[in-house]
Design goal:
This protein has two domains: 172 residues, 2-Layer Sandwich (Beta-Lactamase); 61 residues, Orthogonal Bundle (Arc Repressor Mutant, subunit A). The chain has 251 residues and is of the alpha+beta class. The protein has a five-stranded antiparallel β-sheet, sandwiched between helices. It starts with a helix and ends in a 9-residue tail after the last helix. The protein contains eleven helices and five strands, in the order ααββααβααββααααα. The chain is elongated and about 65 Å long.
Length: 251
């Protein structure tokens, strides 16, 4: 696929799934056959937020993600630490340097050992520029199993600027598309009720507009709060807006 065709596919993508499929295919052309993208809008000085609120996209095996993501190994991953403190692209050669200088913590060393067991040994990480202290996004590009770090560094020397550009464009596109974790999806009625709240309507107004009773509107709003794991309707409106779940056009 030419770069122009790829960028047109990215621009025309109507869903994260469609976008991710095109990006995985394109990165494989450069020798990166496994990708792991993560984004949070709820970072603080002590936390990355509730993992259920992360945007996570990956084509790694379930055997890998069950440990690295579900068991929280990512929290101790050296390249994740690097991404949280930096912006731009970084070769995983950094890990060999940390081993050589004995600057890895025991928890970081366990993550490296797990990654080696899973064939995650060479690659690059890209940390995206944030415009908010609470936002952070990054992607880990894992090289094919038959490539070592020197091989992928050679690829990067030729194509690194294009690869960085493509990943930044995909990151920006992801932020415009609707996303919800399986346990955070809203029903059409819940979404509509939140949209009217966002427009400044009262419960009585919404009941008339939706042809429902006020009690039913309150039920939809309560279920929306439960689905989004928030305490107030205002928080639900904000979280749904962050995830592009409001005023969504059907594909």
């Amino acid at each position: 696929m030419s770069l122009r065709s790829y960028l047109l596919d990215v621009a025309d993508s109507k869903s994260i799934e469609e976008l991710w499929e095109a990006h995985v295919e394109k990165m494989a052309e450069y020798g990166f056959d496994r990708l792991l993208y993560g984004f949070t809008r709820y970072r603080s000085s002590t936390s990355l937020g509730d993992p259920s609120d992360f945007i996570i996209l990956t084509n790694h095996s379930r055997a890998y993600t069950e440990v690295f993501l579900d068991e929280g190994h990512y929290f101790h991953a050296p390249m994740v630490h690097w991404a949280l403190e930096n912006e731009g692209a970084k070769s995983w050669r950094l890990l060999a340097d940390m081993e050589r200088t004995k600057t890895l913590t025991p928890a970081e060393r366990r993550v490296l050992e797990f990654n080696r067991d899973m064939g995650v040994t060479a690659g690059y990480s890209i940390s995206f520029k944030s415009i908010s202290a609470r936002n952070k996004g990054a992607i880990a590009l894992t090289a094919c199993a038959d490539m070592d770090q020197r091989d992928i560094d050679d690829v990067w020397a030729v194509h690194g600027r294009d690869i960085t550009l493509m990943n930044n464009i995909v990151h920006l596109k992801i932020l415009t598309l609707p996303y919800s974790a399986p346990n955070r999806a809203l029903t059409s009625r819940q979404r509509e009720a939140l949209e009217w709240v966002g427009d400044g309507k009262t419960t009585h107004d919404i009941a008339m507009l939706m042809g429902l009773t006020a009690a039913t509107v309150e039920k939809h709003l309560r279920l929306a709060r439960d689905a989004l794991a928030v305490e107030t309707t205002a928080q639900a409106v904000m979280k749904a807006a962050f995830a592009n779940q409001m005023f969504v056009l059907d594909p």
